[in-house]
């Protein structure tokens, strides 16, 4: 008979660093490790408490004198797409979505590099090589999948347009990191992937889609407020926003 270890996870605090969302601010994060047999259960509990996952690390903001980062999750069963969202979904009717094992390959990496070079050339991920990308995708002790989006192409495998690393939680899906072909701007693939994940969560019988942090006043994060109804995590728990 085996027994689970009872020792609680250890939490650590990072040093201050420039905030990537609000100019003139500094960020700090509290984090812990997600490893071993308890990783999936711990990831569920921490995600419910506003943490995000990056490889085998779960983290959340712990900034001095700032609470701007707010965890957001969409109420999938109640979500009704707006007119613009319906048009975006229809515009991508020639896209085939699939959920695959979280395994990295050269085709994905080429798309990932094109996305970074176009959208985030000065960001913290700008220098990532193939090995770094493989670690991002595959270094996980939780139920992680890779959602792929390809052009429909008869019997052959169509061109890869977008990918999203996704965690399957006990109460929803969590979009860990997504990227797409920057030359296909007319498709609004970022929006399309969120809409497709909402539908996929419903199909899995899961009520929530976790989008990470919304930051009021940050143009990078404005889009997350468009998916209603949603819940935002506050001091008293998850609060509904219509």
Question: How does this model look, in words?
Answer:
The protein is of the alpha+beta class and 242 residues long. Helices cover 24% and strands 32% of the residues. The chain contains 5 helices and 14 strands. It has helices at residues 39-48, 83-91, 106-119, 130-138, 189-204, and strands at residues 12-13, 17-18, 26-27, 29-33, 52-54, 57-61, 69-75, 95-101, 144-151, 160-168, 172-180, 208-215, 230-234, 237-241. An 8-stranded mixed beta sheet has the order 8-9-10-11-12-7-13-14, sandwiched between helices. Strand 11 (172-180), helix 5 and strand 12 (208-215) form a beta-alpha-beta unit. It is globular, with a radius of gyration of 18 Å. It starts with 11 loop residues before the first strand and ends with a strand. The relative contact order is 0.18. The model has no long low-confidence stretch (mean pLDDT 93).
């Amino acid at each position: 008979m085996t027994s689970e270890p009872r020792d609680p996870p250890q939490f650590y605090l990072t040093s201050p660093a420039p905030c990537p969302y609000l100019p003139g601010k500094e960020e700090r994060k509290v984090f812990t490790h997600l490893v071993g047999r308890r990783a999936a259960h711990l990831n569920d509990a921490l995600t419910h408490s506003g943490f995000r996952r990056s490889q085998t690390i779960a983290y959340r903001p712990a900034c001095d004198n700032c609470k701007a980062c707010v965890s957001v999750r969409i109420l999938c069963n109640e979500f009704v797409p707006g007119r613009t969202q319906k048009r975006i979904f229809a515009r991508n009717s020639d896209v085939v979505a699939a959920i695959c094992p979280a395994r990295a390959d050269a085709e994905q990496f080429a798309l990932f590099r094109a996305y970074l070079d176009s959208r985030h050339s000065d960001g913290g991920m700008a220098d990532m090589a193939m090995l770094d990308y493989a670690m991002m995708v595959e270094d996980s002790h939780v139920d992680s999948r890779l959602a792929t989006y390809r052009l429909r192409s008869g019997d052959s495998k169509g061109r890869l347009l977008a990918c999203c690393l996704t965690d399957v939680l006990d109460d929803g899906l969590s979009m860990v990191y997504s990227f797409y072909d920057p030359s296909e701007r007319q498709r609004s693939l970022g929006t399309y992937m969120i809409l497709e994940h909402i539908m996929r969560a419903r199909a899995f019988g899961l009520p929530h889609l976790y989008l990470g942090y919304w930051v009021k006043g940050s143009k990078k994060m404005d889009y997350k407020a468009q998916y209603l109804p949603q819940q935002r995590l506050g001091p008293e728990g998850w609060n509904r926003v219509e």
